[in-house]
Amino acid sequence: MAQPLPQIPGVRLAAVPAQIKNWQRDDLLLIEIAAGASVSATFTQNAFCAAPVLIAKEHIRGGDIRALLINAGNANAATGDRGLEDAKACCRGVAAALGVNPEQVLPFSTGVIGEHLPVQKILDGIPVAAHTLHADGWDIASKAIMTTDTRPKTACRTLDIAGETISIVGIAKGAGMIQPNMATMLAYVATDAAIPQPMLDQLVKEAVAESFNRISVDGDTSTNDACVLIASGATGELIADGQGEAYGLLKAAIVEVHIELAQAIVRDGEGATKFVTVQVNNAASSAEALRVAFEIGESPLVKTAMYASDPNWGRLIMAIGNAGVDNLDTGRVSVFLDDVQIVEAGGRAQGYTEEQGQKVFQQPDFTITVDLKRGNVSEHIWTCDFSHEYVTINAEYRT
Amino acid sequence: MAQPLPQIPGVRLAAVPAQIKNWQRDDLLLIEIAAGASVSATFTQNAFCAAPVLIAKEHIRGGDIRALLINAGNANAATGDRGLEDAKACCRGVAAALGVNPEQVLPFSTGVIGEHLPVQKILDGIPVAAHTLHADGWDIASKAIMTTDTRPKTACRTLDIAGETISIVGIAKGAGMIQPNMATMLAYVATDAAIPQPMLDQLVKEAVAESFNRISVDGDTSTNDACVLIASGATGELIADGQGEAYGLLKAAIVEVHIELAQAIVRDGEGATKFVTVQVNNAASSAEALRVAFEIGESPLVKTAMYASDPNWGRLIMAIGNAGVDNLDTGRVSVFLDDVQIVEAGGRAQGYTEEQGQKVFQQPDFTITVDLKRGNVSEHIWTCDFSHEYVTINAEYRT
């Protein structure tokens, strides 16, 4: 985070205080993308997806995206036909300010569900933002999209490809997946590399699968989640075939930026006091490995035990047993807490002492590793603990 | 609960303090069943099912069950081959004391996972229990099987069939599904009606589907869950065909006893302050109705909102949207809190005020009704809220 965020030639940003809520802070972010860039995105799977998500999905199908508009404080979700009209009005406002078509603008909103967007405040803010666009705006942007986040989330990488320096920068918001009424997770990643559209479409899917789809704070998915990947093409050769070493390096760096942002969301999970990696090895398939990992990572019983620094292995095997793995031979299952073996052959490991396990669980950051001994597939996810503070935040929010 | 529990001729009970843990209370329950009774049971689906569950499943396949032995304080789960031997030793102890075969005994354990059963203490307790068996033991029995339950759970019905009085009595333990390390839910229901084995096998499945499979405290399933239904046949005609009016009445009463016990578990859910029915109407299938109901009933965000008496409809539609209902037309979804409409056509209902919703959520007992307008199938579940006390209980347990 201390690392200064590089500029991405071809991308300019500006944030303004539009007073979408009664607060004193930037809450409207405009991102301008130069002509010729490729833009890809993934969106929430929730059936109640928000109006801006519906509009953004429609616009991105048309291609040639030239701007993103993001507001915090209001999700424009469950707002019916008026919500759609409001999102379109915002796109028209950006189009007028930047001289592009409304269909070249992607709208995003995050905040309270079920209240209508204060469209006029946004329309008033857009021209101000359009006049202050600058390439150095990533840090300010990361703060403008925050809701209950306790800190901004940014990540970046630079690498040399064919003698040219390529940069990747990303910002995200989300204090866990746990605030669907704060409708919840947004991430924007940009690189100045030139990546053709079909390859970028594939890359954003892969990067999200390795990052945001592997985190859980409480298993809920919001109505507004979105992740956007921009390749401005301002620097670097066109990476056309997706095969070469250069593309491999670029892809790895882009995935790393996504992972760093995803982990930052878990670390900032509401009430979270621990960051826990759940690693499942030797599964028969990726699907069953992820099921076991999420069953552990989402069990309130396991998460309260993490909070209490209580290496409660009964709860761990309960969660493994509930993952619906066909014909699981429980007698072959091992579990490790960092490098301490706690479960061996489905029972308490020989020589394991409570003190060893407690020492691991007392750390702010540790790994639970499950070995299913059924195949050779490994998967991992990241999760956090479940604290008193979580209940307080979610019981008191909005009241 | 104030209702005195009737005797079930053909079933005698005794509880003794075997000191399975370092406590002063009955913790070992023996239930003797007269020859000729039918006994059926359902067991946990958790892959890590406990040693007594494995033995009980094996024994019940042989039929002609004559006794149940239940201990609290130790689950005999994740205890490997020695756990199986320990459970068998307990069955042999009961067989010797009652003059039956070990295979005619079903063992059950509830308590901490992963510690070996104190078999000698149990073997010492069995003869004492065998000498004090009596038909009036149901109230005492309901207390002996408690772990962190704050109160015993009992239910009974009597009805007249063909001029004879038939009784049904049931006991259960479980402070929520939320304590798999206290391995968790046990229920025993007995009637003096005569019900043939195949019909009883069907009946216990149906009764559990209507009761214990419709409750959630946190969505976790324990290693030791079991529900046993006994038809002693001491009273009443043999109800042979399952078709007549008499069987219909009996079945309804037996299901009612199961439902009353299941609801008692939710009401005693750890830290629970509210009892909430989630009703889903006009679904296309039973499966999708239950998915929507459980998505609401298990969402930590919805449950913390219940705790806070906050009618947070954004969280409700988020949960509905996450239930994976194919092609859900969100614009047709309605939600009611008791008789207050909060969501209409997928958005905030016209005329709804926050005060109306809050008034419903402030009650200790209310219903959330979702209308999907997709078909004509309705389902319901029962759940509770998620409080600070839940985190405290589960974070501090065992420490």
Automatic annotation (TrEMBL), chains A, B:
<dbReference type="InterPro" id="IPR016117">
    <property type="entry name" value="ArgJ-like_dom_sf"/>
</dbReference>
<keyword id="KW-0012">Acyltransferase</keyword>
<feature type="active site" description="Nucleophile">
    <location>
        <position position="184"/>
    </location>
</feature>
<feature type="binding site">
    <location>
        <position position="184"/>
    </location>
    <ligand>
        <name>substrate</name>
    </ligand>
</feature>
<dbReference type="Pfam" id="PF01960">
    <property type="entry name" value="ArgJ"/>
</dbReference>
<comment type="pathway">
    <text>Amino-acid biosynthesis; L-arginine biosynthesis; L-ornithine and N-acetyl-L-glutamate from L-glutamate and N(2)-acetyl-L-ornithine (cyclic): step 1/1.</text>
</comment>
<dbReference type="InterPro" id="IPR002813">
    <property type="entry name" value="Arg_biosynth_ArgJ"/>
</dbReference>
<dbReference type="InterPro" id="IPR042195">
    <property type="entry name" value="ArgJ_beta_C"/>
</dbReference>
<comment type="similarity">
    <text>Belongs to the ArgJ family.</text>
</comment>
<keyword id="KW-0055">Arginine biosynthesis</keyword>
<keyword id="KW-0068">Autocatalytic cleavage</keyword>
<feature type="binding site">
    <location>
        <position position="394"/>
    </location>
    <ligand>
        <name>substrate</name>
    </ligand>
</feature>
<keyword id="KW-0963">Cytoplasm</keyword>
<comment type="function">
    <text>Catalyzes two activities which are involved in the cyclic version of arginine biosynthesis: the synthesis of N-acetylglutamate from glutamate and acetyl-CoA as the acetyl donor, and of ornithine by transacetylation between N(2)-acetylornithine and glutamate.</text>
</comment>
<feature type="binding site">
    <location>
        <position position="147"/>
    </location>
    <ligand>
        <name>substrate</name>
    </ligand>
</feature>
<feature type="site" description="Cleavage; by autolysis">
    <location>
        <begin position="183"/>
        <end position="184"/>
    </location>
</feature>
<feature type="site" description="Involved in the stabilization of negative charge on the oxyanion by the formation of the oxyanion hole">
    <location>
        <position position="110"/>
    </location>
</feature>
<feature type="binding site">
    <location>
        <position position="173"/>
    </location>
    <ligand>
        <name>substrate</name>
    </ligand>
</feature>
<keyword id="KW-0511">Multifunctional enzyme</keyword>
<keyword id="KW-0028">Amino-acid biosynthesis</keyword>
<comment type="subunit">
    <text>Heterotetramer of two alpha and two beta chains.</text>
</comment>
<comment type="pathway">
    <text>Amino-acid biosynthesis; L-arginine biosynthesis; N(2)-acetyl-L-ornithine from L-glutamate: step 1/4.</text>
</comment>
<protein>
    <recommendedName>
        <fullName>Arginine biosynthesis bifunctional protein ArgJ</fullName>
        <ecNumber>2.3.1.35</ecNumber>
        <ecNumber>2.3.1.1</ecNumber>
    </recommendedName>
</protein>
<keyword id="KW-0808">Transferase</keyword>
<dbReference type="GO" id="GO:0004358">
    <property type="term" value="F:L-glutamate N-acetyltransferase activity, acting on acetyl-L-ornithine as donor"/>
</dbReference>
<feature type="site" description="Involved in the stabilization of negative charge on the oxyanion by the formation of the oxyanion hole">
    <location>
        <position position="111"/>
    </location>
</feature>
<feature type="binding site">
    <location>
        <position position="270"/>
    </location>
    <ligand>
        <name>substrate</name>
    </ligand>
</feature>
<feature type="binding site">
    <location>
        <position position="399"/>
    </location>
    <ligand>
        <name>substrate</name>
    </ligand>
</feature>
